[in-house]
Predict the 3D structure of the following.
Amino acid sequence: MTKVWDGFIRGFHWLLVAGLVTLYITGEEGMMDLHFVTGYLLLALMAARLIWGVIGSQTAKLSALFHSPKAILSAIKSKQSHVGHNPAGSLMVLLFFVLILIQLVSGLMTTDDILVEGPLAQYVSYDLVELAGDIHHTNIELLIAAIALHIFAIVVYRLKGQNLVKTLVTGKQENAVSTPVMKSGVVAYLIFIALSALLLFTWGAEPLQGLM
Ligand code: HEM
Ligand code: HEM
């Protein structure tokens, strides 16, 4: 058994899923205090993931996510197992990062036109606030489509004989073709906690009070 996912990547994934589900429900239901607080926590989580993509384990590296179209196509066709994200999976991960960042940044500039507005709305023009609102509403549909495709791909790999979920949960892979350089995910969790505290004490203080 070879360790291929560090503790942070494994925790990051399920925290991301929990955060997005909470944000979707609270957004649709207009529970804005919880929406904002969860939004700041997700912002801290994504920032920690991107930092970890520079200083973290080999399989967490952002530089490992870029591949040629040829490599992506052959990864879709082949049954060969891979250490870390394969080239097709890497494209999916990049797409997620971009869509989630668009959702977060547009949220920071959005208003519900009644009671609340994102912390950046006051610094940008009215037109940009309107645009950010449109993006926040439309981009969520793209994110949902990407999630559906992601889960479909995981099922297809399972049918091809690769249990990617088990590997992501345990962090360990059988018959790995190489041994990646791993780092302790604790550092990334500390970055996440520090950024969360910073955001909750600043932008998050008001919505947090609303929740108490
Ligand atoms: C809100 C829904 C979801 C989102 C946004 C999401 C997003 C992601 C992202 C961003 C990664 C890359 C992890 C990283 O390198 O940091 C990933 C990987 C992965 N996800 Fe999800 N995911 C979702 C739901 C699920 C579900 C429900 C499952 C299981 C059924 C799943 C299984 C996996 C697996 C197995 C990988 C590793 C893929 C590989 O080996 O390359 N995901 N996901
Ligand atoms: C990835 C993270 C996020 C997701 C998935 C998300 C999702 C949503 C959804 C589904 C809605 C309802 C849209 C609709 O009614 O059609 C919404 C509304 C809203 N979100 Fe987010 N959101 C995120 C981050 C944020 C952040 C960080 C902020 C600000 C700090 C924010 C501020 C708002 C506001 C003000 C609304 C109300 C818009 C309106 O009523 O027109 N969101 N969000």
Summary: The first strand starts at residue 2 and ends at 3. Residues 9, 12-13, 16-17, 20, 49, 85, 89, 93, 96, 147, 150-151, 154, 164-165, 168 surround protoporphyrin IX containing FE (ligand 1) (CB under 6 Å).
